[in-house]
Write a structure and sequence with these properties.
Layout: E1 4-7, E2 12-15, E3 24-28, H1 42-59, E4 64-68, H2 75-84, H3 90-111, H4 127-139, E5 143-146, E6 149-152, H5 154-159, H6 175-180, E7 196-201, E8 219-221, H7 223-235, E9 239-245, H8 249-264, E10 270-276, E11 279-281, H9 296-302, H10 305-313, E12 321-323, H11 325-342, H12 352-359, H13 364-376, H14 380-389, H15 397-408, H16 412-427, H17 431-443, E13 446-452, E14 458-464
Parallel strand pairs: 3-4, 3-9, 9-10, 11-12
Antiparallel strand pairs: 1-2, 5-6, 6-7, 7-8, 13-14
Helix pairs in contact: 2-3, 4-7, 4-8, 7-8, 10-11, 12-13, 16-17
The structure holds adenosine monophosphate and zinc ion.
Length: 465
């Protein structure tokens, strides 16, 4: 079976054909580093990590390049820096905010079992490429300088008699309707209401760089140009897959397409545009004001990262997710069982049923149903390999159980000792003693379960009631 992916640009699920199978290239919009990442931000990280792993499985690890950027220049970062470090010069405060937040982001997504991308470019390290794209756009008649800003003109793009895509093609919006629906107050430096910023002047004290277009004042880039520049630098003028959350389709991705295609005279920026659906919490939109805003960091205090990962993958990536406590608890139960059954077993190869589900536009709910099938048919080696393909089983059973115990604050050594005593009592058929120990454990809130491992040897496992 071949890989098929849903493409937002054509609104169809199509067979995936890489431009160069020896160098499959994917770009995903990464975080703006000003605060802890929330569980919604974890969704694109996990979804595109599964795709990265699948592509490596299909084309070979050395033949897939995954770029996920870090946006480290943004108004939200400046505001946060001024708020959190009022005593420091702004640039120093900004460095602190982006360093701390970047580190936290890495700790969070590592715990979710996400591989690091092949390259993680930072916007501030690609200002030269941004200036170059801007110069090309001005030379091509697609952009202009006004009052120390540089603006991109979608109307100039659509007036060009060429093979360029139409502005609005990705988000299926008509430029004429955008013009008609524009607000009355338009920034004075814009010729048309639909023009968007490529470059703007910096306020005193803000991060600033020499401007393009002969502008004397120092300035800084707009958000959209950052991704066009980083994708170009690391993946070239055209590449295979561009991903991100559904909220980024307009204006961010529409504008990336416009910038890149007009600068390099391309018909396409990426051949497949993939967007994950949104995540809400207990049936409500996540927001700080509703008090249901959950960070990955907070969740990791209560749940192993792989539980969050499994919980995320139970829903197909294009559908909305309702993130609930109930579903998390179920995911934890499932993963506990899979760990005990398969984590210490040497993996065979990933099961065809699992791989085929993933080939069908990353159908992870179906892949998970196939994992349950492997468990039910006692294929521990197949389950082990399939779970690993999906980014699970990074720990041994002992590590997994040990971490759960640590998190619960229970003395694991004491419990292990009691279980060993009970096993010995059962071996000498002293059932009164073995029952007494079971009750003692129950009084501590620990439930034990007698079962068999994949080799048929008796084992006693435990969990909290
Ligand atoms: P941001 O830092 O807000 O630019 O978001 C980083 C990534 O997380 C982008 O790909 C967003 O589309 C995605 N994202 C933000 N909020 C959610 C959410 N509630 N559900 C799913 N994805 C989200
Ligand atoms: Zn982007």
């Amino acid at each position: 079976m071949e890989l098929r992916l849903y493409d937002t640009m054509t609104r169809t699920k199509r067979p995936f054909e890489p431009i160069d199978p020896k160098n499959v290239r994917m770009y995903v919009c990464g975080p703006t580093v000003y605060d802890f990442a929330h569980i919604g931000n974890a969704r694109p990280v996990i979804v595109f990590d599964v795709l990265f792993r699948l592509l490596r499985h299909l084309y070979g690890e050395a033949h897939v390049k995954y770029v996920r950027n870090i946006t480290d220049v943004d108004d939200k970062i400046n505001d946060r820096a001024a708020r959190d470090f009022p005593g420091l010069p702004l640039n120093e405060a900004i460095r602190k905010v982006t360093e701390q937040t970047g580190k936290q982001f890495h700790a969070d997504v590592d715990a979710l079992g996400a591989l690091r991308p092949s390259v993680e470019p930072r916007a501030t390290e690609h200002i030269g490429e941004m200036r170059e794209i801007i110069e090309r756009l001005i030379a091509g008649g697609f952009a202009y300088a006004a009052e120390d800003h540089v603006l991109f003109s979608p109307q100039a793009m659509n007036a060009a008699n060429s093979t360029l895509p139409r502005y609005g093609a990705l988000s299926k919006r008509s430029l004429d309707e955008m013009i008609a629906g524009a607000r009355v107050e338009v920034a004075p430096y814009k010729k048309d209401s639909t023009d968007f910023v490529l470059w703007k002047p910096s306020k005193p004290g803000e991060p600033s760089w020499p401007s393009p277009a002969g502008i004397a004042a120092q300035g800084r880039p707009g958000w959209h140009i950052e991704c066009s520049a980083m994708a170009w630098k690391h993946l070239g003028e055209q590449f295979d897959i561009h991903g991100g959350g559904i909220d980024l389709v307009f204006p961010h991705h529409e504008n990336e397409v416009a910038q890149t295609c007009c600068a390099f005279h391309q018909q396409r920026m990426a051949n497949y545009w993939m967007h994950n659906g949104f995540l809400q919490v207990e049936s409500e939109k996540m927001s700080k004001s509703l008090g249901n805003f959950i960070t990955i960091h907070e969740l990791l205090a209560d749940w192993p990262g792989e539980v969050l990962r499994l919980n995320m993958l139970k829903t197909h990536y294009t559908s909305p997710i309702d993130w609930t406590m109930k579903s998390l608890e179920e995911s934890a139960k499932t993963l506990n069982d899979w760990y005990r059954f398969a984590a210490d077993v040497a993996p065979s190869t990933p099961a065809a049923s699992v791989v085929e589900a993933l080939l069908d536009d990353l159908n992870t709910p179906q892949a998970i149903a196939a994992l349950h099938g492997l468990r039910n048919s006692s294929d521990a080696a197949g389950l082990s390999a399939s779970l690993r393909l999906l980014g699970f089983l990074s720990e041994s059973v002992a590590q997994w159980e040990g971490r759960k115990r640590q998190a619960s604050g229970i003395d694991a050594g004491e419990i292990d000792r009691l279980i060993a005593e009970r096993t010995a009592a059962r071996a000498r058929k002293d059932f009164r003693e073995s029952d007494r120990i079971r009750d003692e454990l129950a009084a501590k809130g620990v439930v034990i379960k007698d079962g068999k491992d994949s080799d048929g040897k008796p084992v006693t496992t435990w969990e909290l009631a």
